[in-house]
Automatic annotation (TrEMBL):
Residues 220-281 form the tRNA nucleotidyltransferase/poly(A) polymerase RNA and SrmB- binding domain. This is Poly(A) polymerase I. The keyword Ligase does not apply. Belongs to the tRNA nucleotidyltransferase/poly(A) polymerase family. Residues 435-465 are annotated as: Disordered. It catalyses: RNA(n) + ATP = RNA(n)-3'-adenine ribonucleotide + diphosphate. It comes from the Bacteria. GO terms for molecular function: ATP binding; poly(A) RNA polymerase activity; RNA binding. Gene3D superfamilies: Beta Polymerase, domain 2 (3.30.460.10), cca-adding enzyme, domain 2 (1.10.3090.10). Keywords: ATP-binding, mRNA processing, Nucleotide-binding, Nucleotidyltransferase, RNA-binding, Transcription, Transferase.
Length: 465
């Protein structure tokens, strides 16, 4: 779809929306490029009803109201937007006064959430370029913005957004698109470009580095040269992100339906090494075709496929895959050092988790640990324990994980096939299969030898059996 842009259509937005809250753009401002309704493909039918209602209600209350961000970007690209964000000159309190179903959230960025049934429309007041020392803005010594609640004009808001294609504003006034930063051209050329100086913008908020990779993967865009160069140079800043925000971003990176490409780009740009340093180290030792790299890529491919089919994906399985490489190394080490299987498992899980800067919350961490703990049981087991494993509530996830390890070349084909058949076999067939167990399966767990020496003790933190 060719997008025609009228450079001559620069008009002062103040003329467009006479409003008491409006701040005049700086004198050297180049003004927006206006793409008229007839010249773009975003129609009101693309906009979810709650977002449309918010836009109209703000307009009726004499505020400026624009759709911005992923909603505009994705519709123009012919994609289904995940959500619709609204930008306005109404202050958060004014937004709250306009809607009965509205809550103000966020300290770092104060936002209004307008609730419609299960839907939330995020309404952000235009941000301005606050001065350091201002009460509403807080910047640390490394340039990171800790708080930013200075309000400004539409134009100022545009320059403070992250990527040019995320700073396109769809006006509910005349259905045109306002572009201050060259976003339409970048959209057409499929380029992801950070607005302003990338080194400064990544320092202000290192999460933008992860967003760069996420959008490049999702949209199939190339990263503009400096946007990519600064990413590589500043990748270490990822360690400044709080664990909670890092976890949220990881979910968006790996459970957004484009995990395989995201994983590849994260590694290519040197970011994965800061997210999962121990895993990256194992991949480097084993090589790109080694078991860990193959297992992870396959985990991402499977997750993308499940999402495409509308099936569920769980962070527990994802993080189990992300931490498995280092865990397996420690497990092997511990067993070789003569530890019992049970002790080795506890030790390996503790060390693997300690090496992960980002971990899921407890409700996912426990099933993640169970997936790990059950793995040796597929390989070393007695007939009785094989049957017990089938009844374990985490059997299905652990079995899927076994197949993933098989993809990495860690688990013999025969063992995978045996478990695939065993779990669906009728009672009689099951007994026959137990007689024909593959060699590794028939092996007694290393812990057995040790257990005979003393009373059986369950190690702390072992949640299986
Ligand atoms: P999607 O919702 O599809 O993940 P999005 O672009 O809408 O993509 P959101 O996280 O919903 O992303 O944010 C909405 C908009 O807010 C973005 O498009 C961008 O303009 C702005 N934004 C979000 N996070 C940042 C950030 N860290 N720095 C600057 N601007 C941001
Ligand atoms: Mg969005």
């Amino acid at each position: 779809m060719p997008i025609r842009i009228h450079q001559s259509d620069r008009l002062c937005v103040q003329d467009f929306f006479p409003d008491p809250h409006f701040t005049k753009p700086a004198a050297d401002s180049i003004g927006p490029v206006i793409v008229r309704r007839a010249e773009h493909t975003l129609s009101r039918s693309h906009i979810a009803a709650p977002a449309l209602k918010v836009l109209y209600r703000l307009k009726a209350a004499n505020y400026q109201a624009f759709l911005v961000g992923g909603g505009v970007r994705d519709v123009l690209l012919g994609l289904q937007p995940k959500d619709f964000d609204v930008a306005t000159n109404a202050l958060p309190e004014q937004v709250r006064a306009t809607f009965s179903n509205c809550r103000l959230i966020g300290r770092r960025f104060r936002l209004a959430h307008v609730h419609f049934g299960g839907h939330i429309v995020e309404v952000a007041t235009f941000r301005g370029a606050g001065e350091q020392g201002d009460d509403a803005v807080l910047v640390d010594e490394r340039g990171r913005v800790l708080r930013d609640n200075v309000y400004g004009s539409l134009e100022e808001d545009a320059w403070r957004r992250d990527f040019t294609v995320n700073a396109l504003y769809y006006s509910i006034e005349d259905f045109s698109i306002h572009d201050y930063v060259g976003g339409m051209a970048d959209l057409q050329n499929r380029v992801l470009r950070l607005i302003g100086d990338p080194w400064t913008r990544y320092r202000e908020d290192p999460v933008r580095m992860l967003r760069a990779v996420r959008f490049a993967a999702k949209l199939g865009f190339s990263l503009e040269t400096h946007t990519a160069q600064a990413l590589r140079e500043l990748s270490g800043l990822l360690t400044d992100i709080s664990p909670a925000r890092l976890y949220d971003e990881c979910l968006k990176l790996f459970l957004g339906g484009h995990a395989a490409q995201t994983f590849t780009l994260l590694r290519e740009h040197g970011l994965f090494a800061y997210l999962f340093p121990a895993t990256e180290a194992v991949i480097r030792r084993e090589g790109e075709q080694g078991p860990t790299a193959r297992l992870l890529l396959q985990a991402m491919v499977n997750s993308d496929q499940r999402i495409a089919e509308g099936r569920s994906v769980t962070p527990a399985f994802l993080f189990a895959a992300l931490g498995w490489g280092p865990l397996r190394e420690v497990l092997d080490e511990c067993i070789q050092a003569g530890m019992s299987m049970a002790q080795a498992r506890v030790e390996a899980i503790q060390r693997a988790e300690a090496a992960m800067p980002v971990l899921p919350p407890r409700r996912f961490r426990t099933p993640m640990q169970e997936i790990w703990q059950l793995q040796p049981r597929f390989e070393f087991t007695t007939a009785k324990r094989a049957k017990a494993l089938l009844r374990h509530p985490r059997f299905r996830a652990a079995y899927d994980f076994l197949l993933l390890r098989g993809h990495g070349g860690e688990v013999p084909e025969a063992l995978q096939t045996w478990w695939t058949e065993f779990q669906v076999a009728a009672d009689e067939a099951r007994e026959v299969l137990l007689e024909q167990r593959p060699e590794s399966l028939a092996k007694a767990p290393p812990s057995r030898r040790r257990r005979r020496r003393g009373p059986r003790r369950r190690p702390e933190g072992d949640v299986t059996s």
